[in-house]
Structure formats: C-alpha cells, structure tokens
User: What shape does this take?
Amino acid sequence: MAVSKDEAQQRLKSFLDICRRLGLKATPQRLHIFRVVAETDEHPEADVIIAKVREVMPTVSADTVYRTLAFLEDNGLIQKLSRLHGCARYDANLRKHHHFVCVKCGAAWDFYCEKLDTFAVPDEVTNLGTVESLHAELHGICKACQAALGE
Amino acid sequence: MAVSKDEAQQRLKSFLDICRRLGLKATPQRLHIFRVVAETDEHPEADVIIAKVREVMPTVSADTVYRTLAFLEDNGLIQKLSRLHGCARYDANLRKHHHFVCVKCGAAWDFYCEKLDTFAVPDEVTNLGTVESLHAELHGICKACQAALGE
DNA sequence: TCCTAATTAGGAACTAATCCTATTTACAAC
DNA sequence: GTTGTAAATAGGATTAGTTCCTAATTAGGA
Assistant: This one.
C-alpha cells in the first residue's frame, strides 16, 4: 500500500468518471480489481492480482481480471511494465545500446547514446542497491506508421 | 543483416571458443541457430527464429531452438529484450517514472528523475520517428539480495 | 419497475515455452 | 580410423499464462 488515502480517492473518482463518460458499468468486480491494483506498489503479475482479488471475491474469474486490467490500461488508469523478466525477443547486438520501439507496429531499432550509458543515477536508486546497467526504451511512432496514419 | 562479415566471423569464433572451453558440442543445429540470430537486427521473437532456422534445417525442433537461445544467452552471445509487447506486470503509478529491477529476485522499484524525463534524445532516433516517452530500466542487485549473497 | 446492452463465471481453447525420453551424434581417447 | 560415452536432438506431451465462448446475470437509464 504505497498510495495515500487522498490519492486512492482521487483514482477511484477517475475510474468512475471514465465509466460514466464511456457508458460502461462500474461493477463491483471492476471496482474491486481496480482497488487491488491501485493499492500496491509491488508491480504484481496477473496471477498475484487474481489471488488478491479472490481473497475478497472468491468467484471472480481470471477472464474478468484480465479484461478489467486491459480496460484500465486502455483508459490510462494503470500501466503495464514491459521490460521485466520473462521476455521473448532476441538481440545479437552486444554493444551497449538502447531501443526505440514503435507503439503501432512493434518494430524496434537499436541506438547508441554515450550520455545514457554514463548517466548519473539518482541517489534514490543507489540507496536501493547496486546499479549495473541502464537501458532506455523509447516509445513513439515510426516514420512508416506516421505515413500510414496520415493517409 | 546488419553485421559485417568480419563481425559475423568474430562472433562465430567466440561461439566455437565457448563451446570448446565448456566442453560442449558445436552441433550443426547450434551453429545454424546462432547464425540466424546473429545475422538479423530485427529483434525477432522465437517463432520467427524457428521459422528461419527451418528454412534451411526443416526438422529442427522448437525445443532445440529454445535451448540454444538460452545457451547463447547464458554465455553472453545474445541478449533477450524483455517483452516489448504483451507483458504481464502492472503498475498503477501514473506519474512519469522509471524502474530499478533486481536481477536476482525480480523485485521492481519506481523512481523519479527529472533529468531522464527531459532527456534530449539523439537525432539518430528522432530521424526514425516521433518519440513520445523515455522509460529507463535500471538493472542491478538490491540491498536484500546483496546481503543474501554476502553470507 | 422494467428493459437491454454490458458484463460475468467458468470451462474450453489457444499459445509460448519447457519437459520427457528414446535415439542420434560430436568428439576425445585410443 | 574405431570406439565409447556424455551431450544433444526430435518430436510428442505437458504446463502456464492468457484469451475465447456462451449462457446467465446485472447495472443503470427510461
């Protein structure tokens, strides 16, 4: 539980606003799932969220949780972390590098940046542990997708 | 095909060296899989690699490809990009932030950094498309895991 | 209170990745 | 070159995570 009562209240309000605006139902399941995600700072995986949700509402289906998470993400109420464990794309470029990823087509480009490689990490982080590397992931829209959108 | 002939040659040599050093076999399958990964800069997913491998060696099993990729990764010949799309951890922190991830235990911490949020992206990248966000992922070892290793 | 489109539960299906095991093979020792 | 053996393979089975399907339920406006 990392967020303040005020912040939690605020988030709940955003949630209800969005439902009203889109004509979607604020079901008890959705509210509860949202609360579970909003009340932690542990970046949980879906199975952890499902388990926590079921502590209070044991019959909620996995599908409902996944659907709700997708709904929350689509509406900017939560984010998915991307570059954590358990990945699936490979890169034989062994030079230290970073990535630009097109959010439309998913293509990824390598780039090099001395300033990022030598970036002075905030004390806030060095207090958490030893930092071994910094990898930057830039998100945006590639030229090809821009052209396609413009048509 | 992004790498030069020389670089490819060099990588192949590293590969054979590592096999010899570890007493592992340089099978035709391994060599071929390594070549396929080393010869692209498209950050392919495993299924793409499997398909490309099978263009030349149709009977190679998925298991062999996955095992070989893990082997190459363990020995630093390739890197995995963490799931750029389709990830599985969630975060309700909507402030612009970055992550410190412990490579031992997988725990993740949010942190804030104005200098990263306003980082001037290299022209190299702005030529590729429109950049919308920069997310930094720091890898290292958290205090708890350091303590556990020290014992 | 009623109506209806949205939502749900829960099991089936799908997909990516790994495991299992009998067979094959690289390669070191002779 | 032969041989012996541990390592590696193919390919089917299995597992885990996620999404799909459908009949039943429900939120919320009229």
About this structure: Chain A is about 45% helix and 20% strand. The beta strands of chain A are 79-81, 89-91, 98-102, 108-111, 129-142.
